[in-house]
Each structure stands twice: as C-alpha cells, then as structure tokens.
Amino acid sequence: xxxxxxxxxxxxxxxxxxxxxxxxxxxxxxxxxxxxxxxxxxxxxxxxxxxxxxxxxxxxxxxxxxxxxxxxxxxxxxxxxxxxxxxxxxxxxxxxxxxxxxxxxxxxxxxxxxxxxxxxxxxxxxxxxxxxxxxxxxxxxxxxxxxxxxxxxxxxxxxxxxxxxxxxxxxxxxxxxxxxxxxxxxxxxxxxxxxxxxxxxxxxxxxxxxxxxxxxxxxxxxxxxxxxxxxxxxxxxxxxxxxxxxxxxxxxxxxxxxxxxxxxxxxxxxxxxxxxxxxxxxxxxxxxxxxxxxxxxxxxxxxxxxxxxxxxxxxxxx
Length: 318
Description:
Elements: H1 47-63, H2 70-97, H3 106-112, H4 114-134, H5 138-141, H6 148-180, H7 185-214, H8 220-247, H9 253-257, H10 262-273, H11 288-313
Helix pairs in contact: 1-4, 1-6, 2-4, 2-6, 3-7, 4-6, 4-7, 4-8, 6-7, 6-11, 7-8, 7-10, 7-11, 10-11
C-alpha cells in the first residue's frame, strides 16, 4: 500500500502593507504614500531691497554680456574698444606732440561719438527688458516681494549705469593722458568733472528713451531697430535743418530747431551750462533761454519715459 502524498504547509501570509488613502496607488503594486509633511521657512527674509539690488546687478552685467555666453560679450566689448580708441590716440598725440591742449574737449567727445554710443544702447536696452517680456518671466518677478516700481527703477538704473560707464571711460583716459602730458591740473580736473556731468545727463536721457521703446515689444530685433531709428534719424535730420537755417541767416532758429532730437538737446545744454561748445552748424551756441528750455524738455522726457515704463508693467497679462 503506497504512502499518502505529503501536502506542503501553506505559505505564510505576507505582512500587511501600511494603510494608504483610499483611491491611491497603495492598492496597486504595494506602493505607499508617506505623509512627511512640510516645514515652514524660518531663515532670514531679505525683502524688496535685496531683490531690487539683485535685479539691478543682473541687468547691469547683462548689458555687457557678463554671466552669459561668450558670443554675448563680443559686441559690447568691441563697441567699448571702439569708443575708447580715439581717446587713446588723442592721448598719444598730446603727449608725443607736447601739446598744451587736447584735440577734443571732454564734453564734445561724448557728442562726437554718438553713433557708437547709440549702437551700444540699442543693443543693451532690449537685452534688459525685451527678453523678460518674450519669455513671460515678468509675472515671476512680481509674485513677491518685488513691486512694479522696483522692477522699473532697477532696470532704469542698470541701463543708466552701463551707459554712464560706457561714455565716461574714454573721458577718464583723456584725463589721465592730460595728466601725463602735464597739462594744467586744476583746469583739466574741472573740465573732466563737467564732462562727467555731460556724460551722466546724456546717459539718463538716452537710457529712458531706449527702455521706453524696448519695453513696447518682446522682439529684440524690433527694439534694436526702433531705438536706432529714434536716436539717430532725428539727430541727422535736425542737424541738417540747423545747417539750412544757419546758411540762410535765420537768427536764433538753429537753437530752437535743436529741441527736436536727444543728441542736440544734450549738445545745447553742455554748451550753455557745462563749459563746452556746441556742434551746431555755423558754430552758434544756443542762448541761455533756449538752453533752459532744453533742460525742461530733457526733464519731461526722462519723467515721461519712467511713467510710460510704470504704466507698461502695471498691465495685466504680462
């Protein structure tokens, strides 16, 4: 008689899985959802001031391509070299020729190099604001703690600083060259200070106009074209009209025509109040009354550009 087959003992039951919320993946494949909780941030809160400073520094660096790819640094650095090269050449001429006066004054240097400066500001302004609009990151800035006025003031200050550095660096080269040539220290220092004032006023006006135009479109190429057209075309046209008026002997007409462009506005102000001479055709500087109107127009343009930027960034759906 054959022995009965042995029946293996039943396998032990698997351990019970941790309970999971109903409808979760815990009932499928043995996965478990653990409630680990969230911890509140109890570290330092740096606030609006830190955010504004960070945005200012980041925007300023971006104007020169710093912190970006090598390709982004090429144009700003080439333009910076181009705007400084004539100053270095004039220093060499002054020192080697033992001249008692520099070939070009500090104020007039900024006015004469307007085409190069215009290209720089046309490239820097869209970089500062247009890319934020294009990639729709502006609402992230405004989530917290930064406000609309913080964003606008940081961008405005960054472009002004970048443009002021761009225009004042060649003036510093001229000043050092004058000291090397042993020109009169007091005269050169005073003229250099007036040149820096002209550079600051030039940078303030052009930064405001450029940012107001760049903020109108997320397309960087459109912003570049609009800024170059707004800063270059009126200056050429107004200069031509001033030349016609001067050749016809129409009294003070060239001075009033100078109200029509940003470049002639700064040229007239530096000639009347900053010890320079204007580049107006015929060599006729604006009168003190005309230059006072120039100052008023510049103030209105800067304030208007800032107000337009605030209005632009208060719109919903950015």
